[in-house]
Design the sequence.
């Protein structure tokens, strides 16, 4: 894969990731996923072009970390929900009687304790997810930092920094906004890549007269 193809794939992929989160599209999730795949393909091509495996490997590790973190969060949250329902006496077998079971709960004692445990589990799951998000951002910053060095395009470094700051600030809305903006900057960075200039040959030294 040549440089032009790699940078175009990466740029288009970043644009798809940028617009994929907008509620204007019925298949936003699919658009974002296609964009992510195109970015990874573009990074692989650029890693091969610049002979720097870390460009692709760090990005891949970041994506894998994000997937694992998401799965862990969903798993912990699901277990917490099932445990919460079981503590309330609500199971699949007695689903028809849930209304009566909930009405019989003493919310001033047992109910509040159960809810407190459930909230604690969810809070723990969020902390775990936050840690995985930070690790993902660190990997991505390494990838874009290497790409910035190899291409001379400083916007890649800016993208990595914004993603890291956004990851730290995911506990508030501004963090997600920064990551979203970083995708647009990433697209501009991809399209700003120029072919490497050939270095002028060093003239051979004239032989010394004796």
Sequence:
């Amino acid at each position: 894969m040549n440089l032009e193809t790699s940078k175009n794939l990466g740029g288009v992929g970043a644009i798809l990731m940028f617009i994929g989160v907008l509620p204007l599209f019925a298949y936003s999730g699919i658009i974002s996923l296609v964009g992510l795949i195109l970015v990874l393909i573009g990074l692989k091509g650029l890693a091969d072009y610049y002979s720097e495996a870390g460009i692709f490997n760090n990005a891949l590790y970041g994506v894998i970390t994000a997937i694992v973190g998401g799965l862990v969060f969903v798993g912990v949250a699901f277990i917490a929900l099932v445990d919460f329902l079981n503590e309330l006496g609500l199971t699949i077998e007695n689903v028809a009687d849930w209304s009566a079971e909930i009405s019989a709960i003493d919310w001033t004692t047992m109910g509040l304790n159960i809810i407190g445990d459930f909230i604690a589990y969810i809070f723990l799951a969020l902390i775990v997810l936050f840690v995985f998000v930070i690790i993902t951002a660190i990997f991505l910053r390494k990838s874009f930092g290497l790409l910035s060095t190899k291409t001379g395009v400083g916007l890649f470094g800016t993208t990595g920094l914004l993603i890291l700051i956004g990851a730290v600030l995911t506990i508030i809305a501004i963090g997600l906004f920064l990551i979203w903006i970083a995708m647009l900057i990433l697209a501009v960075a991809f399209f700003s890549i120029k072919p490497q200039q050939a270095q002028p040959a060093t003239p051979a030294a004239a032989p010394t007269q004796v």
